[in-house]
Amino acid sequence: MADPAAARATATVAHKFPTEKPRLRLLLGAALGQLQRVEEAVQAFSDALTNAETLLALAELNIDALQVRALALSGLAAATDDPILATQAAQAFTQLQRGTRAAGVVADSVWLLDAITSSCDTAGILADVIPVVRHGRPTRATAPTSCSWS
Length: 150
Description:
7 helices
């Protein structure tokens, strides 16, 4: 994310576009993470997850909501150093990939996951999630348990 502060400002207009609210909250979480505002990032990722799950209750194959759900779980896992959330994120990406492996969705997911993890140790909590996003499968048997926002 080239300008996290600008992304944060843009994401605050979610009330004008309710179907885009989950993605805007996700972007807000990523921007806040890059600004080292971890508690606010956790809240934004939680909001994105809740909003995505609301949309999934209406249409379980909503690709955008599936993607936001997986990325929000990734953001929460990174921000809270929670291996259970990392596992849930990998499972959510698997569910997304059952719906689509479209190149644009994969590229968008990789880009957003990179933005989320940019403040996180590359050998950290999301190490097993990244290959699932890129290749549709994990490449290691266990997830590491340390990740710090610095």
